[in-house]
Specification:
Layout: H1 8-23, H2 67-72, E1 81-83, H3 96-108, E2 114-119, H4 126-146, E3 154-160, H5 171-177, E4 179-184
Helix pairs in contact: 3-4
Length: about 180
């Protein structure tokens, strides 16, 4: 049995109120920087113990790096950083050669993969900077793809303001932190 109401506008008003209240929920979340996990880049040393020191052999679990391989593949001499203007994700003309040379390397060897890491300076909120860093990384990835790299070779990630290249709160430091780093994997 269905009950009909003489006020159909009341139903529409209730739906509208529910929609408006749900639409505001996404922007009411505030992040506290003190609770966010931040990676420390400070090296730590492990000492002591009855490990391999007594037996005279090293038990390091650090893998050795083959520098001849990176020099042979031509990527060691390439510039791998693109800098951006404040609040922008437009690639400046002066960094087009960086993008073009890396696109040639990726186009010549389809087995190579690259992660483009987007970064921002310390100004602005955390969410805003993560979004801006992502836009910077995606702009570089899109340019690489237009110049010959495949989408499967590229990954764009954002670190926002969490990994500054230079410490400081002046224009010189900020300019070095507004960047996208091209990292071969």
């Amino acid at each position: 049995m269905r009950v009909q109401t003489s006020r159909p506008w009341l139903h529409g008003l209730c739906v509208l109120a529910a929609t408006v209240s749900l639409a505001g929920c996404g922007s009411s979340v505030k992040l506290d920087d003190k609770q966010a996990p931040v990676e420390s880049r400070t090296p730590t040393s492990v000492t002591g113990g009855a490990g391999g020191a007594a037996s005279g052999t090293s038990q390091s679990q650090v893998a050795s790096v083959d520098l001849s391989k990176s020099a042979a593949d031509g990527t060691s001499t390439l510039a791998r950083v693109v800098y951006f203007d404040f609040d922008s994700f437009v690639i400046k003309d002066e960094f087009r050669p960086v993008v073009e040379s890396n696109a040639k390397v990726l186009g010549a060897d389809r087995k190579k993969h690259m992660v483009i890491e987007g970064h921002t300076d310390e100004r602005g909120g955390r969410e805003y900077n993560l979004a801006l860093g992502q836009k910077r990384a995606e702009a570089v990835a899109k340019s690489l793809a237009l110049l010959g790299a495949t989408d499967g070779q590229l990954e764009a990630v954002s670190f926002g303001k969490e990994r500054p290249a230079v410490q400081g709160s002046d224009e010189a430091a900020w300019a070095k932190n507004r960047r996208a780093e091209l990292v071969y994997r």
